[in-house]
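Board notes, transcribed. Complex of a protein with G3I.
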Amino acid sequence: ASTLGASAAQSGRYFGAAVAAGHLSDSAYVATWDREFNSVTPENEMKWDSTEPSRGAFSFGNADRIVSHAQGQGMKIRGHTLVWHAQLPGWVQNLSSASDVRTAMNNHINGVMNHYKGNIYAWDVVNEAFADGGAVGTLRSSVFQQRIGNGFIEEAFRTARAADPAAKLCYNDYNIDDANANKTRGVYNMVRDFKARGVPIDCVGLQSHFGNPPSNYQQNIAQFAALGVDVQITELDVGGSGSAQADAYRRVVEACTAVPRCTGITVWGITDKYSWRSGDTPLLFDGNYNKKPAYTSVLNALNGG
Ligand code: G3I
């Protein structure tokens, strides 16, 4: 097939992009999104600071603009993200009792998921909860971890399942791409424990912000999938340019398509001109929406090489 989305669909997968509401007035941006992608993740618009900036006051305007456009195009929508330590309004960070944080967290999950009930393919229920260093399984300090304790992750997933039983529930993180890294092992152990105890979890999101994908990336995808969850590549971008970048992108796509339960890939933006990695050129389209060598290698890999 001749577009990313249609090529991924040949094997039942999706190929998505992160989209920002602030760029919807850029007609080339929207045209490229519509032509090439069959899934979207709102880049910032579903985060806590956007959707519940003050307690109990929900606002969905920018997220709704992305969702309604995507629905008009028949795209899948990934919800990002319900419980995260960043882009978290001050009122949440200042809550001081366990019961207050628990109530706020569950109320937020219910408020956002109910608004989009039935319309979201997969939610990043909890994002980036694991620490970058320390012993295997160490969680990052956050108001959730500090006040509720490590069980906040399980509680969030249980609340999310009840709120929208049709949505796949994902745990999403960065630096869990290397099969043997301590951080990866911590997430792996959590997912294995959740599956063993019947805590609802359906997918692991590998953000995959790369310089170079690790050589055991496919093995890592396969080891998560073997736990009985889908794996989604959720925020892919690769620094650099030219053939080295194209080759890295190819290896990522091949690693996903080699594992049946790797169900889709999302790149973290459409064009280099709006990438969060300022000063780098990590995406598939250049600043003028021209296809880069990385685009061609991804397209070819999705079409079986
Ligand atoms: O919306 C305000 C705007 O009103 C203000 O004038 C402007 C001035 O700085 O800031 C705007 O907010 C920015 C927002 O992006 C929207 O553009 C924030 O400062 C900026 O921090 C924010 O960055 C986002 C970042 O998450 C925040 O953590 C990036 O766009 C977004 O790509 C990035 O995405 C994260 C994923 O959610 C999780 N994984 C890592 C990934 C990359 O950091």
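The first helix runs from residue 4 to 9. The chain has twelve helices and nine strands.
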